[in-house]
Write a structure and sequence with these properties.
D-Maltodextrin-Binding Protein, domain 2, single chain, about 375 residues, seven-stranded mixed β-sheet, alpha/beta, 12 strands, three-stranded antiparallel β-sheet
Length: about 375
């Protein structure tokens, strides 16, 4: 009996010792809560799906790079260093080289017409004034691109509607105010004209140079026809002005203002920051004047030529010049104001019109059609004589 009790005691002791050596179970931690990855729709955030427009534009960019170049007929808007700066910026971004052929508005119209007739299109884009581009549009020589350009999806970023024509083929890419430009070395402050009628004074005889208003489509024709349209001046005024023996300049916009800067003429009645601003900044003795009767406000217009050889590069360039980057490059290069609200103007204080114009006489698409009729009717030739 004693032996049995001893056996039980030893057995229990061993079991207790073994139970103390058994490892305790390791608790399994609860899975850490994970943050679900929400789709924009599930999170309530706005979605930005790739649209068909985006796909179409990506194809335009791709094809434009394959085309590799384009030719622009830019009148006076890309002369000198300004054109080179713009061309380099566009080339650096897209590896597409724009070539500028500087010709007058009337020359542009004729050149595009001849190229279309011969089915040998060289120019892809025209950058010129409203009269020139409106003439091309009404002749069926332009293509509508406004619906394709991403920069035109939100027109609220522009100071005015950039779509100039009803069918969207003419696109405004800058605005400028025109005024008489004088040589400050020859015209002293007290002698500066404040009214267009001051130009009828004897001292201005043979001293005024302007682009020939009889050609139509140029700045000289705009000065003549817009003031006639707004009834600021009339035919009698221009008959009296013709007796002042003005110098009619045929071509070479920049050269004409260089003649004023050199003193070969004292004044040109039509100029803007985009055409003479860079000359003033470089030290030319030029000054743009505000006039009592008002100053003409014009738009620089771009349009793609119908059946252009490089259509995708043309669309890409027009879109880029409207973009924030393109507007900054263009405004900075020309020392001028931008058409966009989100781009600070780069107009040098020396270029600003003095005095500020009392009112603006804007060019419009409807007006362009009417003054083109002035040209067809030969009103300027009737006043100034045949060319």
């Amino acid at each position: 009996m004693k032996a049995l009790k001893l056996y039980l005691v030893v057995t229990m002791t061993i079991l207790i010792a073994l139970s103390g050596c058994t490892p305790k179970p390791v608790p399994v931690p609860e899975p850490a809560p994970t943050t679900p990855v929400l789709t924009p729709a599930a999170s309530g955030l706005p979605t930005a799906p790739k649209s068909g427009q985006d796909d179409a534009w990506a194809k335009v960019v791709q094809e434009a790079k394959k085309e590799g170049r384009l030719t622009i007929y830019p009148s006076a808007y890309f002369t000198g260093d300004k054109g080179q700066i713009v061309a380099k910026a566009f080339y650096d971004k897209y590896d597409i080289r724009p070539e500028f052929l500087i010709i007058t508005g009337p020359q542009t119209v004729e050149k595009v017409r001849v190229e279309a007739r011969m089915n040998q299109r060289i120019g892809d884009v025209v950058a010129s004034g409203e009269s020139t581009t409106s003439t091309l549009s009404q002749s069926g020589l332009t293509a509508s691109v406004s619906q394709e350009l991403p920069e035109l999806r939100d027109k609220s970023v522009f100071k005015s509607d950039p779509i100039f024509s009803p069918n969207g083929d003419l696109i405004s890419f800058s605005l400028k105010v025109n005024g008489p430009t004088i040589n400050t070395n020859l015209v002293k402050l007290q002698d500066e004209p404040r009214s267009y009628f001051d130009l009828l004074e004897p001292k201005w005889k043979g001293k005024v140079i302007l682009e020939d208003p009889r050609t139509g489509g140029g700045a000289g024709f705009t000065w003549f026809s817009a003031l006639l349209y707004y009834k600021v001046l009339d035919a009698d005024y221009y008959r009296r002005f013709s007796k002042q023996e003005p110098i009619f300049w045929g071509s070479g916009f920049a050269e004409m203002f260089s003649m004023v800067a050199r003193g070969e003429a004292w004044l040109s009645p039509h100029a803007a920051d985009s055409t003479v601003g860079y000359m003033i900044v470089e030290g030319a003795p030029l000054k743009i004047l505000g006039m009592k009767e008002g100053n003409i406000a014009t738009s620089d217009i771009m349009t793609m030529v119908k059946d252009a050889t490089h259509p995708n590069a043309a669309k890409l360039f027009i879109n880029w010049i409207l973009s924030r980057e393109g507007q900054e490059v263009y405004a900075r290069a020309g020392s001028m104001e931008s058409m966009r609200k989100d781009v600070t103007g780069f107009l040098d204080p020396r270029v600003r019109m003095q005095p500020e114009p009392q009112k603006l006489l804007p060019r419009t698409y409807d007006m362009a059609a009417i003054i083109n009729q002035y040209h067809k009717d030969g009103i300027a030739e009737g006043i100034f004589g045949k060319k």
